[in-house]
């Protein structure tokens, strides 16, 4: 193995926890109580519209607006024009999301394992550079995960093979001797393998697929896959 390429959200950074806590705070600020149905609605809208941005179907700001257009009526809020939606996303959701940014407690163990294996490391994330670099800064990981490649800068996103190859090129590694680590199985595992990399699924929540042989539930297990 020459290199490890790490995902960010759900792998090093607890996006799910931060998003859920932000929605809780926001819903209460709207005079409602959070419910499983509201969490599910936010998560579903986020997944669908982020996928549309990832696939190049809508601009980044528009994917955020679409999320709000679906969610705001559920908490009794009117849907304004684009400028109002942009301000709401930033001032009502993002500020709360940032307040809950946390890393996972197994990240240091993973970086120690990578260093011990003597392999290069890069980070590849389906996000925009400003926010993803801010997350790394907040987690104390800036400058510690090698080159940082974002979909926003590349103009393409995982699972496109070109982005995996770009990450390998950034550290001068052969894709066939590079391991990709991420939590989104279709994107981070299936996509990486289709691009010629090895891949391991970080299945923190036991959501499967159960028949995935190259699987771990914690980054503390990463060293096993670097041999």
TrEMBL record:
Gene Ontology molecular function terms on file: hydrolase activity
Gene3D superfamilies, per the entry: 1.20.120.1600, HAD superfamily/HAD-like
Record-linked InterPro entries: HAD-like_hydrolase, HAD-like_sf, HAD-SF_hydro_IA, HAD_sf
Protein origin, superkingdom: Bacteria
Stretches that traverse the bilayer: none
Required cofactor(s): Mg(2+)
Keywords: Hydrolase, Magnesium
The EC number(s) this enzyme carries: 3.1.3.-
Record-given protein name: HAD family hydrolase
Organism: Kineococcus endophyticus
């Amino acid at each position: 193995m020459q290199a490890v390429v790490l995902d960010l959200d759900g792998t090093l950074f607890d996006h799910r926890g931060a998003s859920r806590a932000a929605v809780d705070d926001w819903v209460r600020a709207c005079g409602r109580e959070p419910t499983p149905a509201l969490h599910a609605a936010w998560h579903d809208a986020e997944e669908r519209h982020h996928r549309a941005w990832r696939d190049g179907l809508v601009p980044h700001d528009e994917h955020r607006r679409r999320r709000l257009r679906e969610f705001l009526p559920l908490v009794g809020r009117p849907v304004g024009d684009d400028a109002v939606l942009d301000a709401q996303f930033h001032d009502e959701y993002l500020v709360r999301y940032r307040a809950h940014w946390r890393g996972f407690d197994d990240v240091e163990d993973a970086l120690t394992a990578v260093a011990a294996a003597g392999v290069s490391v890069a980070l590849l994330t389906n996000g925009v550079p400003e926010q993803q670099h801010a997350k790394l800064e907040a987690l104390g990981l800036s400058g510690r995960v090698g080159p940082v490649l974002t979909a926003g800068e590349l103009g393409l996103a995982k699972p496109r093979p070109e982005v995996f190859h770009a990450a390998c090129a950034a550290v001068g590694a052969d894709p066939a001797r590079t391991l990709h680590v991420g939590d989104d199985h279709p994107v981070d595992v299936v996509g990486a393998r289709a691009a010629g990399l090895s891949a391991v699924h970080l299945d923190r929540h036991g959501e499967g697929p159960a028949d995935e042989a190259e699987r771990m539930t914690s980054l503390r297990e990463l060293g096993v896959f670097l041999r």
